[in-house]
Write a structure and sequence with these properties.
The protein is mainly alpha-helical. It is built from 12 helices and 2 strands, in the order αααααααααβαααβ.
């Protein structure tokens, strides 16, 4: 399927800002791993409360997903075949650290881009009131735990039917959940192995729980907020820009998620530059730019 037809201005900005190996993304991955390990060491030394460490590592997880997300779109390599292995390497490492399968997520996420806000969008489960997202997130945790068990996909599908929802997976070993089960099983096995070594607390509270909290943040800031109210399929309106004080730094520029949907090859740290360059075009095409800091 061919991509959308870009104007000359769009093509120029997209090509210019997509160019080159994304060293900042690789450095982000390294820095986040260091922070995560430092949090565990600080708790072990008694200088950091357990709950504080849990929340810090959950925000680390959000940053790790940024690496996964750019790796999915080959933005780390700059879509240069010479460096393509770095997309897989970084995406796989960051994905496993948040207990998600990189290859399976890549398949799902690219379907989201191809069918944004339609019935074929795998992220459509986030549609609805914001208050419902924590409940959906809790259910997703139960589903993933079931999926990690032998025959778990059938159990997860039975649970979803009882709750009146869609099937938990599309069935077959090629489904997202069939791939995801192995990433979840790594976490389960790590927790079990840690018990006799007295390390179950840092494994569960400083890794597994933060990894799952990450997906609550993603449900809000990657799925719900950028695509609300899920009514449009036009490429300039199926996603939005939502700015608030500090949003560029807190969300690692995903406050400009529309830029990503329009030009997926641009790495996360250049979204603001693309917004500035194309602000008149976005206004002309009726793009939604909301929030108290809407001036790019």
């Amino acid at each position: 399927m061919s991509g959308p037809t870009l104007t000359d201005a769009e093509r120029d900005v997209s090509q210019r800002l997509s160019r080159g190996f994304a060293w900042p993304t690789v450095l982000l991955l390294v820095a986040l791993i260091v922070i995560g390990v430092a949090v565990i060491a600080a708790w072990e030394a008694g200088s950091m409360p357990l709950l504080l460490g849990m929340f810090i590592n959950s925000f680390v997880g959000y940053g790790l997903y940024t690496v996964v997300h750019d790796a999915v779109h080959k933005s780390i390599s700059g879509r240069d075949a010479k460096y393509s292995r770095w997309d897989t390497i970084c995406g796989t490492i960051a994905g496993q650290l948040i207990l998600t399968n990189f290859a399976g997520h890549r398949s799902s996420h690219l379907r989201h881009h191809a069918h944004t806000n339609t019935d074929r969008d795998p992220d459509l489960g986030a549609k609805g009131p914001l208050a419902a997202l924590p409940i959906k997130w809790l259910i997703s945790n139960v589903v993933l735990l079931l999926v990690a068990l032998p025959g778990g996909i059938h159990l997860a599908n039975a649970l979803m039917r009882r709750l009146g929802g869609e099937r938990a997976s599309e069935g077959g070993d090629s489904s997202l959940l069939a791939a995801q089960r192995w990433a979840v099983r790594v976490g389960v096995v790590a927790a079990l192995i840690s018990i006799p070594f007295g390390a179950v607390v840092p494994v569960v509270v400083l890794w597994i729980i933060p990894a799952r909290l990450t997906f609550l943040y993603l449900a809000i800031f990657f799925a719900w907020l950028p695509h609300f109210p899920y009514e449009h399929t036009d490429r300039f309106r199926n996603t939005r820009i939502t700015l608030f004080p500090g949003s560029t730094w807190v969300l690692l520029q995903q406050d400009r998620h529309l830029i990503h949907h329009l030009y997926p090859s641009i790495p996360w740290y250049r979204y603001r530059a693309a917004h500035r360059a194309l602000a008149p075009l976005l206004t002309e095409r009726g793009a939604v730019v909301a929030g108290p800091s809407s001036d790019p």
